[in-house]
Amino acid sequence: MRKLIFGCALLLAAVVVSCAGNKSADTKADEPKYELLTYVWSGGKTLPDPNLVTAINYGFGRVNSTRDGVTIENEDRLREVVALKKQNPDLKVMLAIGGGCSEGFTDLAACDSCRKAFAADCRRLIEEFGLDGIDFDRESPGFPDGTPEDVDNFEYLLKDMREALGEDKIISVASMAGALGMKLPDIIKYVDYFNAMEYDMTWTRLGSHTSMRESEVGGFDYNVERSMATYAEKGVPAEKIMLGLAFYGRGDGKNFPEWTEYRDIVVQPGMEVRWDSIGCVPYIVDSLGQFALGYDDARSLAIKCQYVKDLGLRGAMIWRAEQDDDSLTLTHTVSSLILNR
Predict the structure, then answer these.
(1) DSSP 40
(2) SS3 assignment, position 137
(3) How far from the centroid of its chain's Cα atoms is residue 198's Cα?
(4) Residue spans of beta strands (DSSP E) within the chain
(5) Tens digit of each residue's pLDDT (9 = 90 or more) over 70-96
(6) Do 175 and 102 form a contact (C-beta atoms < 8 A)?
(7) Which H or E run contains 155?
(8) Shortest CA distance to 307 belongs to which of 24, 1, 18, 38?
(9) For residue 240, how many other CB atoms are within 10 A of its CB?
(10) What is the DSSP string of 114-125?
């Protein structure tokens, strides 16, 4: 355990050194270029600063009722997001299709003619809205209750999409920790990158859901290090991985809602903020010392940003920008460390 704690401390020290080094213009010029993507929700009320990120995934488009095209939630808000390109011409905007409600994917992917019609409709939307690509928020075709056919058919869907969009448009996939339920070796060739969801990784009992590694308070089922090792074992190149960062916490349902946005985290009298030196994340306990909320803050996100660079990943992904506080504390932290902005 001491080795793990020491390793976490060293990683945090490296972040501090990295931050100091970023102030040098010479250092900036020599550093690799990374990407920083944020998801934006159709029901959100704010927009991200387009100069603090390199890409935005707009959520969501849905598989339509006839399984041969896409319906978009709140088209006006999508247009507002695309209009951010006026402030940052290099900004990429993609339509994320699916989300927590992925109804229709099974029927769509199982039908040859539906897949081709769907891909053609995606191409139409890209041209109509001025988009840069499509993100599949299918998350896990074969887990926990999917079938082998679902996994195979998702591969066919990606193949048809690549043929319809060509090589100049982005195809990305939002994937669970370790990309459970996907045949990674078979779909890598169709995908520009994976938005690795390194959150919601504690399933079997209450605990920190974004831990760097397994500890007494988090990472029981999966953790960031285990997930990244799984991606590597399955042949995903580091440059095709965007490390997912959560701007929300998971609460106990009593002291905090199960889903608590970072902007809404308030430590009440009797509660205490603690630091998990193994998982490298903060958490809050109630007056009895019981776990109440697991989340990420500027300190833990700095460690993860350094981890992106240590592994040579493509960059980082934020779920979601609207959940930050009014000062954009987390966004500024991540953008400064990933993009030097």
Answers:
(1) E
(2) strand
(3) 7
(4) 35-41, 55-63, 70-72, 92-98, 133-139, 170-176, 193-197, 241-246, 248-251, 259-261, 272-276, 281-285, 291-294, 315-319
(5) 999 999 999 999 999 999 999 999 999
(6) no
(7) helix 148-165
(8) 18
(9) 19
(10) HHHHHHHHHHHH
Superfamily per CATH, domain 33-251+297-339: Glycosidases (3.20.20.80)
Six token digits for residue 248: 């929300």
- C-alpha dihedral over 162, 167, 170, 176, to 10 degrees? 50
Beta strands 291-294; 248-251: pairing state:
antiparallel
Place of tokens 């992925």: 102
Q: Which of 84, 76, 73, 92 lies closest to 35 in space, CA to CA?
A: 92
pLDDT in tens, 158-182: 999 999 999 999 999 999 998 888 9
Walk across the sheet containing 281-285 and list its strands.
Answer: 259-261, 248-251, 291-294, 281-285, 272-276
Name the E strands within 201-327.
241-246, 248-251, 259-261, 272-276, 281-285, 291-294, 315-319
Q: 């969009």: which residue's tokens?
A: 165
